[in-house]
Amino acid sequence: MVRGYLRRVYSSFAAHIFDIPPRFLAFLSFLVLLILPISEIGRNELSILISANVLAIFAASWDLLVGRTGQISLGHAIFYGVGGYTSAVLFKFFGLPIWITIPSAMAVTVLAGIIIGLPCLRVRGPYLALVTLALPLIVEDMVKWTPLQFIFGPPEIGISYPDIPLPGVPSFFPFLRSMARTRAEYYLTLILLGASAVIIYKIANSKTGIVFLSILDDEVGAKACGINVTKYKLMAFIISAMFAGLAGCIDVHRVPTGASHLMFALSRSLTPLIVTFLGGIGTIYGAIVGSYIYVLLDRYVMTDLLPILFEQLNINVNPSALDATKLLTFSLIVLIMVIKWPRGIARFTTDKLEDLEEARDLDERGPRIWKTYKKKKSSSKEE
Question: Do 51 and 165 form a contact (C-beta atoms < 8 A)?
């Protein structure tokens, strides 16, 4: 019995993962990410990977909205900020535990998606982009001049990664210290990324996702087919807002200084756009790959090499100008990528790997595939 079960598991794994090179590469990458904390990797490197995990959730939510339905959003930081701020306020002023504040904040973000989505759906194309771009900027200015500008203290007071959790500052694992806490946060964000990616990918490739694609390709034709376009556009806004809010919640409870008006900044809204175009828009997995590329480039190229380059050229640059230079550099990289690989790095890689795919014999690919094949064969004979 056990041997038969293991045989079925192996056949299913071989048919659905091992025989499909892109999926097998994704499986190996996930295994590498799982064992990284066990290796001699440092705490700073783990913190960088945690940032990549959170950014991947944020970018995948944006890709579902823009890459699958064509609703151009340049203000996705509004959902990120609403989720993060709601969780921080519930924790700070109402004393609720993190495991309650995060689901509550996601529910509030869904409500925000409905409130923002309904009026925004009355406009299309560049007008929708301008409306969504203005919203987080307005909210940022409103929050900046209120006592809620910094929930847990200004940046000079807060500590990004203290060895001991600060009193009054949220933390996922307050009972752990230093490296153990960072490792636990890494696994938590990796699990949340995996769950979010699977859910978003399943939605994108379901019947609902097919409707999203029909709206993306021809909205008028979708209406002519009897599809309630407004309903599905709003659904995309809600799902995208929920996962963007989750990313905001994680950042707020991971980095104390994250709960500030900067959550609504323009750079926060443009980051998922850059990331998704790097990996490949409309694929979901491209946003995840692009997030890791973006974070690694930002940390090891922009943060370390750019100041050295400016120093060699005798150019004095303040921190704000350096951030603007980073954004400009990433924009140029995206421009080059769009010209060279218009479908993104991840899509280009999967297209090359699919050429290596070799199908197994049907009797080795699992009982489900064999039954499906027999049904199709019998139905074709009857016809």
Answer: no
Q: Which residues contact 75 (CB under 8 A, 6 or more apart)?
A: 131, 132, 133, 134, 135, 136, 137, 269
Query: Which residues of the chain are under the pLDDT cut of 70?
Result: 1, 148-170, 256-258, 319-320, 355-383
Three-state DSSP state, 341: coil
Interior angle at CA 192, CA 186 and CA 193, nearest 5: 85
How buried is residue 50: exposed, middle or buried, by Cβ count under 10 Å (0-12/13-18/19+)? buried
- The pTM of the full predicted model, rounded to 2 decimals, is 0.84
Question: CA neighbours within 13 Å on the CB side: how many for 143?
Answer: 23
Neighbours of 206 (CB within 10 A): 11
- What separation in angstroms does the CA of 171 have from each of 162, 165, 185, 248? 11, 7, 9, 14
Residue type, 360: R
Predicted pLDDT of residue 339: 82
The whole-angstrom separation of Cα 23 and Cα 300 is: 28
Q: At what angle do helices 98-120 and 229-254 cross, to 10 degrees?
A: 140
